[in-house]
Amino acid sequence: MAEPNTASAPLKEVQIEALVVMRIIKHSTSAFPTPATGCLLGMDVADNIGTQLQVTNCFPFPAAAPDQPPAQQEQQYYQQPTDAATLAAGAPRAKSNVAYQSEMIKYLREVNVDAQSVGWYISTSMGNFVNQNFIENQFFYQKVTDEKTVALVFDVGRSSAGSFSLKAYRLSPSFMASYREGKFNTEAIQKSNLRYQDILVELPLQIHNSHLLTSFLHQLPQPPPTKNALDFPSSIADLTHDPNISSNPLAPNLDHLDLSIDPFMEKTCDLLLDSIEAHQTEQNNAQYYQRSLAREQTKIQAWQAKRKQENQLRGQQKQPLLDENEWTKLFKLPQEPSRLESMLVGRQVEQYARQVDGFSAVVSGKMFGVRGTMLPGDIA
Amino acid sequence: MGTSQNNYLHLARPLAPAAVSTTAPSTAPLSVSLLPQALFSILDHASRRPADQERVIGTLLGTRSEDGTEVHITNCYAVPHTETAEQVEVDMDYQKAMLSLHLRSTPKEVLVGWYATSGELNTFSALIQNFYGQQGEGTFPHPAVHLTVSTAPGRDVDARTYISAPIGVTAERAADSCLFIPVPHEIRYGDAEKSGLEMIASAKEREDRSLLLQTDVETLERAIEQVLEMLERVSNYVSNVLDEEAEPSSALGQFLMNTLSLAPKVDAESVERDFNNHIQDVLLVSYLANTIRTQIDLSNRLATAALTMGHAEGAPPTDAQQQDNKQQSSRGGRGGRGGGRSRGGGDRDYQRENPLGL
User: Fold this and answer.
1) Which ipTM score applies to this complex?
2) Cβ contacts (< 8 Å) between B254 and chain A: which residues?
3) Are residue A199 and residue A306 in the same domain, yes or no?
4) A331 within domain boundaries
5) The whole model's pTM is what?
6) I need a labelling partner for B142 at 20 to 30 A (CA). Which of A194, A260, B88, B227 fits?
7) Confidence at residue B232, expressed as pLDDT on a 0 to 100 scale
8) Which of A61, A163, A222 sits opposite B219 (nearest CB)?
9) Tell me, what's the pLDDT at A237?
């Protein structure tokens, strides 16, 4: 029986059913390259050490129709283009999908599926997911008080290359507080001391199988041999075609031992260049702001000096003094651009850097292994 | 890749009384392929069924090939139903509503059949089968596929697929009679699914059936250990054959020779050179990524920290030096310094301490 004070227990880890894993994989691979989003269902279980979030089912979201009518969209040409990728990425918080989600949950409850929404998932390629859409989606889920939601990110590119890549994230509480206020200019950041590393918190993830599934897995892909030792094959063709002898085991997945690095390297470099460009744009904006602020300031100074002079003259001539603070109404200072985007770029680059580090560890191991095989006796 | 074990007798496929629109109707045998996620979903539903029900049913969604001979089952959902000795009730509205919800998210998947979680076929199955195969909302004119997955605890999970032909005893009983014809099925895995399935399958060895997701290096370690184990078994066998303790097999020997001859024969220098290049590429990209990360971190910190010191070198100009554009940096530098000086003037909006009092 869960205790009533689970509100205070923070989420410690996430446990995910095998079914959810397979569904996410299938949806992501079929929707590639657009990001695939969907809703997670499950429940949270409280322990002594913290709360564990169990995800037991999931379903995909339809790509949302844009919220505004087409006429209005033409005027907002500076907004993001409403192509399929953006629509899909914004799906979890679109209004039409909120209704879809509650309907699905209602129907699924009738067949004894857990009816609590515990988050959402998104598919990405090579770790390219830290952007405005992602933050807004997760904020949309996390802004309700006392919630237990998580965002699962599945990396399609890495998983096809052999290593299964699924991660669980939440927004950190400090970031939530700043995002609620909505201001990301320099003072707010100085006050809150927020760094880009603090935006997301990663949670450990476990896979769990039911009993029925475990017995099924033991039975796949072939029934256990009835005799103690198999007879020898009569020809090479037998080895490849006889199902009793050659089976396709689920583990180990030998794709993982592949040696090619170029596709991964190229894509990572491309994505790094994109991030650098984004960063550069943000820097330009910040500098432009600085320059226009400086210009405004000089204008204000000049005006104030003039006013002082005039007031001196008037003081001498015993005339009423003019207001010295009128410059606030006459001059408008430029708005400081939000620093959120540059923080997100920083976090994204960190994600790439971590991926590359993991990848280089694996590749170094493989390369040294292959070298040892090709040049035997030369273990340097 | 897929797995199929049994042999099937291919009977001519029964045709629906109406012609299929595009191609001529063929009596070629139907074959069904199944995605693992559909199967897992069925098993999950079976374990969640209400305590008093022996079996539960649901709808299968998927895609069909052009001429209808191949059916690919990609998704499924459960439909509540109640079954007593005399009658069976299926919640039709639920079926329709869920179907429309699913079509909204994946419009390509259509209704292809239904499943049941026990292996038996009785009159109720026939009734439901006819319902699913009917005109209007069913799969007409294609035959509805029936998948049974036997989930009795303690026995193997056995999946069979059938299509049906109407078989009439009398006119009144025609609605609940049909002949179930078994058709071959196989389970297909894609690339990404294989890595997911590997994770899931490695959890089957453990006590609590759960496994923490591992990093790449750990997965690599496991894979190498398994390959080493396999190599050891093979080398044991070969040495036993050489010592004449085990029976030789010419097919196995040939296979081993073919495999071993795949190892490339290259000279040591080119191996060294290729190896070095390879490793250098990887390390270079890793170094670059980390450098970029540090640069961006630095620029973010300078942007927010330098202003408290009130020093004339504003933050953004120093960031600009990171880019390769020297002119931009000097221009930005002048603007920043000018901004610092004039900012000290008298801006109440910014409430920043300015010890220099410029």
Assistant:
1) 0.75
2) 236
3) no
4) yes
5) 0.75
6) B88
7) 92
8) A163
9) 62
